[in-house]
Structure formats: structure tokens, C-alpha cells
Description:
The complex is a heterodimer. Chain A is mostly helical.
Amino acid sequence: MEATERNLQLFPKKDARLYMSFMYVTFTSLLVGGLMGLLQTFVRSGRFTLPFNINYYTILTVHGVILGLVLTTFFIIGFQFALMGKTVGISDKQRMVGWISFWMMLVGTVMAAVTILVGQANVLYTFYAPLAAHPAFYFGLAFVIIGSWISAFTNFRQLYVWKKAHKGEKSPLLAFMVVINMLMWVIASLGVAIAVVVQFIPWSLGMTDTINVLVSRTLFWYFGHPLVYFWLLPAYMAWYAIIPKIIGGKLFSDSLARLAFILLLMFSIPVGFHHQLTEPGIDPTWKFIQVVLTMMVVIPSLMTAFSIFATFEITGRRKGFSSLFGWFKKLPWGDVRFLAPFIGMVAFIPGGIGGIINASHQMNALIHNTIWVTGHFHLTVATTVILTYFGIAYWLVPHLTGRRLTPQLNKLGIIQSIIWTVGMLIMSTSMHIEGLLGGPRRSAFSNYAGGAQVDTWIGYQLAQAIGGTILFVGILLMTYIFIKLAFFAPKGVEEFPIAEEDTDAQKTPKILENWYLWVGITIALIAFAYTIPMIDIIKHSPPGSVPFKFPIGRS
Amino acid sequence: MHLHKYEKIWLAFGMASLVVFLLVIGFAAFWKGTHPQSSLDMIDQNNIEAYDNFKPENLGLQEVADGKYKVNIVASTFNYDFGVDKDEKPVKTIRIPQGSTVLFTITTKDVVHGFQVAGTNVNMMVEPGHISRYETVMKKKGEYTIVCNEYCGIGHHQMFGKVEVY
Ligand code: HEM
Ligand SMILES: [Cu+2]
Ligand SMILES: [Cu+2]
């Protein structure tokens, strides 16, 4: 089928229903998690206390789990299923397995959420040992992870079946990208799965007496950094392969896009120590090695930045704008499918710079665990990634429901993007500054020992409450737009915008699809970065820790 | 695979900056000794007093030489133990003369905690079974808040202390 024609062809109902289910969970999570975020900023302003004796750390756990883990994973898997369905197709059996994955993840989410809400898991989304939540929390997490693996293997199978039917053809770019992201996810989440299943579950059930704290943290962060790339890669998919279509251009370079994704796969995992830089028990030389590996991400990031701006310029010039920056003015600023992700790209500039600061070995000590870090990831995840996801949802949801993004909804989307930008600018900037002044993250309001230093923090916490309020208005508006697109917008066909290659594009080298090679290098890098320090950590283990329940209010 | 000429320049410039950057932080870490806190010393968290630094009489501030100090601290939910003063009252503020070299040594009796002298580089994770230590020169006068900056339970924000540099 002609590519453009396929972009305009709606999915069969039964496929669309699966993809939409993931979107319902995504946007429900946004509303629930956003409300928690708003309450957090209120509490931290010092002018508000939570009603009904609700604990600050309960809502913070909900916020982190629901937005950081649930919203992201559901959106990504739903979006990626839709991409696979569009580019390589889905069989009846694969769809059924997709449903199993969906329900398993949903059951896990509900289990974890209920455990948190009844106050039995005030452990935050990182659930650091030896704080011990109720076992149901860990079981819930295990279900979410295993459910996500089921969809990963379905995606692998989808591409495999397509390849067999299309011998000698290169895989569709977006299907290739989905498989890279899911490979990364499976390899990375093995770490947290081992921690949860082998360490936390038996320990929380009382089957083992103690837990090795540093091993559990190291396994968590082996997963924790690739986790953030798992959020980011779907945004990159849109930047590389969808935005060019929206602005009326072509793919910049198929091979370059694939190469960037391969580099991101290789350098996403052997880097977790950059989250453990100030921890005892880990040799600083290995910390430094992982810092170097972390910084390799600069290369695919620069490639991505170049590709994107080159696409913008080429497209503008093809449309006949010849002055140096004339093409820039003519980008479709009034199209929310472009504007929202574009703001996301811009936010990634300060976001990326902040990331380099965080991972810089010794500079990390100034900001580690201060609210600066929270400011950092609200720029990267909660702006770059989320605004790109919104940018996707504006066409994906109506494409799935057989409706249209009307000019009026488009306009609301633009207002939404601006509200988000303003709110985040206020909240994130004040978090960054407060962090540099030493204000800690993950903390309810406190005057500490009083004094001038603490006084300087409180003003910024007020500013965060103002930014947070604006953001929450943005979330309400987004929820409204989603409901409209899902149920009420006029019927029609919204394009599924996938960009094509130029007719005279260079051939993509075959080696880019040599999975054994790339996965092999990835595993070799992980083995290099982790084997020796992990053996050291295990060999030099202190006595294990018993479960601690009272600190999180469990008796 | 084809790379545009400008892209080659852009990537070459980017990678060269990266190499310089890594050399700078590597030099600072390995030759100037500015690695982040990475103590490899261990302790039995159920019997911390077996370790000299954490015997009750050794907690808090001690002058070890002219202009050189030690601060030993035990963290537990939700408190820092800096020892007791002359009246047997718990010490809450550590007073250090400007320009002194101070070695902070800390461990935990229970869960993971943080220890930051806010606004300075004294920032470490404190984990059961491990000892964390960081040496620094207190150059600037003023009052610094000590905060626990790793979540340790529902009283986490009530875990603090103070350093006064005079
Ligand atoms: C209305 C919008 C939002 C507001 C007002 C908000 C506010 C906050 C605040 C104040 C904190 C820090 C609390 C503390 O450290 O004590 C926080 C943490 C966090 N936020 Fe948000 N946020 C919003 C949206 C989001 C979104 C969209 C995401 C992710 C997609 C997100 C992910 C996180 C995560 C992962 C944490 C860390 C939780 C932890 O440290 O345990 N937030 N948020
Ligand atoms: Cu990271
Ligand atoms: Cu704490």
C-alpha cells in the first residue's frame, strides 16, 4: 500500500480498542498524578496542610509511581503498539497477547496503587531498602514489569513475522526504533525484576531475614537510568519520523536515525553509578568509568539535534524560503502537533545541560538529592517527554477513535502547551535555584533548625506552588481535550503522520540491522561496567538489613 | 552512510569538547583527589559502638590538631546524634572556626539516610553497614543547615542539624 494512503487508513476497530486502552490509563494517571503534584507544591509552600491526616509521603509516592512509572509505561506501550500495527501489522494472536499484557500491567498498577493509598507503602517510587512496604506493593510492581515484557516480546514477534514475509527488505524505521526501545527495556528491567523478585518479595514476606541494601540499590539504578531513556526514545521516534511529516518534509536520514538509536541502546545501561556517586561501598574508579560511558550519550544527542534542525531548514527551503532564517518563521507554529513537541525540544537544551552537570562525578555533590534534581527531571520528563507525548496524542487519539482534531481543539492544545510552558518555567526554575541553595528534595515542609539559609528556600517553595497551580490548570485542560478527542470530536479521519524517505535517499547499510552485533556490544559494555564492581559489592557485604516498617508508619 | 559536511564539523566539535571535559573531571578526580565520597569501610550496623568513631564519647566535634577537626555522627530515624554537651544535653549545633579542615564521618543504625551541609559539597549517602566520610575546608563564615536529603520515612523532613562557621 502507498505510504500516504496508509497514513490515512484507520485501524480495524479491534486493534484500535487495544491501543486506546493504554491511552485511557495514561490520561487517568495524568489527572490523578497531577493532582498529587499540585498538593505537594501546596504543602511545601508551608501554607497548607493535607486534610484527613493524609501523609505527604503517601501522595509523593502516588505521584512518583503514577506519573514516573505508570503513565509513561502505558503511553509508551500503547503508542508503540500503534506504530507496530501501522508499519508491520498485528495478528489476531499477537493482539490477544497484547491484551494479556495490558491486563497484567493494569492489575499490577491497581495492586500497587491500593497498597500505597492505604498507607502501607510510603516508600516513594524508588522503594529503597530497608524501608519495607507491604508485599502487595512489590507484587504489583512485578506484575507491571512482567506485563511490559509480554508486550516487548509481542513487538519482537511482530517485526520478526514481517521480516520473514519481506525477505531482503529493510525493516520500517519506526518498527526498528520500537524494537530498540523494547530491547533496552527488557535488558534494563531485568535488574529491577531481580531485585523485586529475588530480594524484596521474599524479604517482605518474612521468608528471608535480611536484604543486601547496596546490591538492591545497584540493581535499581542499573534499571533507573535506562528507564529515563525508555521514556525519551518514543519522543525521539516522533522527532525523527513523525514531525518531518507534520511540517510537510521528508525523513532527514534513515541510517542516521538508526545509528542514533543503536548508540542510545549501547550507552543507556552501563551507567547507573552516576545515580550513586555519593554512595559508600563503590570504588570511585568504577564510578568514573560509568561517568565516561554516561557522557557518550552526547554523541547521539548531537546527531539528533542536527537531524531535527536540518529537517526544519530543508523543508523550509523547499517551500522557497531562501533567507538565512526565513524558513524558521514558516514552521507550522499554529499546529499543536508540531508546537507541543517543539517546546519539548527546546526544553531539552537546558534539560540536557543540567543532566551533564548532574552526572559530572564531583559536581554531583553540590546538587545530589537537592530539589535541583526534581527541577531537572520536570524539564526533561515532565516537559520534553510529556509535551511530545501530548503532541502525539493530538493525532493518535482521534486516529484511534475515528474522529478529528478540530481547529478549535487545536487551539485549545496550543493554549495548553503555553500554560504548561509557563507553569513549568516557574516551577522548574525555582526548583533549580532552591537546589543550588541546598534545599532538599522529597521533603514535606519544614523550618529545619531555622535561620537565614532556610528562609531563602521558602520563597522558592511559594514560587513552586504558583507554577504547580498553573501546571494543574494545564492538566485539567489536557484532560478535557483528551475526553473530547476520545468521545465527542466530530467523526472523520485524522492522519497518522509517518514521514517518508526522499526518493533519492541513500541506501541504509545492512549492518544497522544486525541485531546480534548491537545487542552483543550492549551486553559486553554492561559486563565491562558492572562485573567487577558488582563482585566487589557482593564480596564486601556488610550484614544484611532486616525490614523496617515503623519509619514509614506501618506497625 | 553519508554524513553532511556541516554535520561532521558539528560532531567533531562536540566530541572534542566532550574529550576535553572528561579530561578535566578525570584530572580533578584522580590527580587532585576530588572523587565524590566513596568510602569502602564497613561496620556492623547492629553494633556500631564497636567502631571507635561511633562510641558515645567520640560523637560530635573533636579537635585533632591545630585547625583540624573531626565530626563523628550517628544517623537514625529521624535524628543525627552529635553527642552531648557539658550538661548532658544533645548537641544540635556544631561550631567550627573559619578556615578549619573538617572530616565528617557518619554511619546509620537503621535505614538509608542522607547527610548534606546545605549549600556545600559535604553531601553523602549514609547506608547501613557502611561508613561515609568527607573532608573539607570550611572557608566561609555563616550558619549552614544540615539536612537529611534521602528519604528515610515519614519524619524525614524533621531530621536536621546545624553547622556554624565563626
Ligand atoms: C501538575 C504538574 C506537576 C506538579 C505540580 C509536580 C510537582 C512535583 C513536586 C513538587 C515534586 C517534588 C516533591 C518532593 O520532592 O518533595 C515532584 C516530584 C516528582 N514528579 Fe512531579 N509534578 C508535576 C508533573 C509531573 C509529571 C508530568 C511527571 C512525570 C511524567 C512528574 C514526575 C515526578 C517524579 C518522578 C517525581 C519524583 C518523586 C520522588 O522523588 O519520589 N511530575 N513533582
Ligand atoms: Cu541517569
Ligand atoms: Cu531522611
